[in-house]
From TrEMBL:
The gene is Cndp1. This is Carnosine dipeptidase 1 (Metallopeptidase M20 family), isoform CRA_b. Signal peptide: none annotated. The keyword Protease applies. Gene3D superfamilies: 3.30.70.360, Zn peptidases (3.40.630.10). It comes from the Eukaryota. One of its GO terms (molecular function) is metal ion binding. PROSITE patterns: ARGE_DAPE_CPG2_2. One of its GO terms (biological process) is proteolysis.
Length: 378
């Protein structure tokens, strides 16, 4: 049975953390500066991933952990190139049979980021704004990984015995689908994972700015790629535009048929596969501390699709019960696909703008739309 540290010990631990906060933040800054992007298949970025994994492995070794950087070979890309897969780190601290064993999972890769995406600061430069730290990976997931490492280092610095045996499994391909992770987990089932009592994942968000959130479970994702093809080569729009059934028009119509502007999924039969929400789940949602007004303000949106806490929580991706389809893994702040129309010199574009805005109003969506254009007169 896990026994919490004595209150006096906890006070010393917290004091040490407060005194060394600048040091911890500096390490996070160094980690955020590494462009460990696993999504874009570029040799330079793979080198950054290997550098990131090596830094983490060294950090754990310096704490006295037994560290194994498992070689995963290479990854064959769709374009034919082969890229090395960054290793998965397996680390262990303590093997006392009288203590429970806690395994922490984390990842050190990130999604692509550019300032042009809407960042107020350079995404790979950790920046403090109004008491908050901004940087790619600061939350997802380099910060939480470092928090666990810093917790262990605090116990070590104060010469306090860890109350549990700790294991780390850290990967560098989570954002790209956790390449090779499942195979490794199965292979290590009776070795590294033997004796593990708890697995902890710190890769989620807080619903409130005041209270931490405990994640009670996870769900799966199924990624679809839709391709609409007309022929093997592209057409010249100035020659063939307007006389062909263009693939983009079909794709837009197809994606637009999946869900309406209220968030209701239009795929026949999909709700029949969804298990009903139990009374226990309803009670759990009712007891979750969530201020809708505060959450809406922090999200910087005018309103959500749902007006009650229970409805929002059952649809929120991080706590969702029903399926929640999205064209991208993360909803965009805005979308702005370009299209064009060929025209004669006297053409008036105002009716087209009026038509687009009228159609958008019919959607009764909670978003805002605008239409801009520029012309190249003949």
């Amino acid at each position: 049975m896990l026994s919490p540290p004595h209150s006096g010990t906890l006070e010393k631990l917290f004091q040490y953390i407060d005194l060394h906060q600048d040091e911890f933040v500096q390490t996070l800054k160094e980690w955020v500066a590494i462009e460990s992007d696993s999504v874009q298949p570029m040799p330079r970025l793979r080198q950054e991933l290997f550098r990131m994994m090596a830094l983490a492995a060294d950090k754990l070794r310096n704490l006295g952990a037994r560290v194994d950087s498992v070689d995963l070979g290479s990854q064959q890309m769709p374009d034919g190139q082969s890229l090395p897969t960054p290793p998965i780190i397996l680390a262990e601290l303590g093997n006392d049979p009288k203590k429970p064993s806690v395994c922490f999972y984390g990842h050190l890769d990130v999604q692509p980021a550019q300032k042009e995406d809407g960042w107020l600061t350079d995404p790979y430069t950790l920046t403090e704004v109004d008491g908050k730290l901004y940087g790619r990976g600061a939350t997802d997931n380099k910060g939480p990984v470092l928090a666990w490492i810093n917790a262990v280092s605090t116990f070590r610095a104060l010469q306090q015995d860890l109350p549990v045996n700790v294991k780390f499994i850290l990967e560098g391909m989570e954002e790209a689908g956790s390449v090779a992770l499942e195979e490794l987990v199965k292979r290590e089932k009776d070795n590294f994972f033997s004796g593990v009592d708890y697995i902890v994942i710190s890769d989620n968000l807080w619903l409130s700015q005041k209270k931490p959130a405990l994640t009670c479970g996870t769900r799966g994702n199924c990624y679809f790629t839709v391709e609409v093809k007309c022929r093997d080569q592209d057409f010249h729009s100035g020659t063939f535009g307007g006389i062909l059934n263009e693939p983009m028009a079909d794709l837009v119509a197809l994606l637009g048929s999946l869900v309406d502007s209220s968030g209701h999924i239009l795929v026949p039969g999909i709700y029949d596969q969804m298990a009903p929400i139990t009374e226990e789940e309803k009670t759990m949602y009712e007891n979750i501390d969530l201020d809708l007004e505060e959450y809406q303000k922090s999200s910087r949106v005018e309103r959500f699709l749902f007006d009650t806490k229970e409805e929002l929580l059952t649809h929120l991706p991080s706590a969702a019960h029903p399926p929640t389809p999205s064209v991208k893994p993360l909803p965009c702040k805005h979308v702005h696909p370009p299209f064009y129309q060929q025209h004669s010199p006297q053409w008036n574009f105002t009716p087209l703008k009026f038509c687009l805005m009228s159609l958008f109003e019919l959607l009764k969506a909670f978003n805002n739309a605008s239409v801009r254009w520029r012309t190249n007169q003949p």
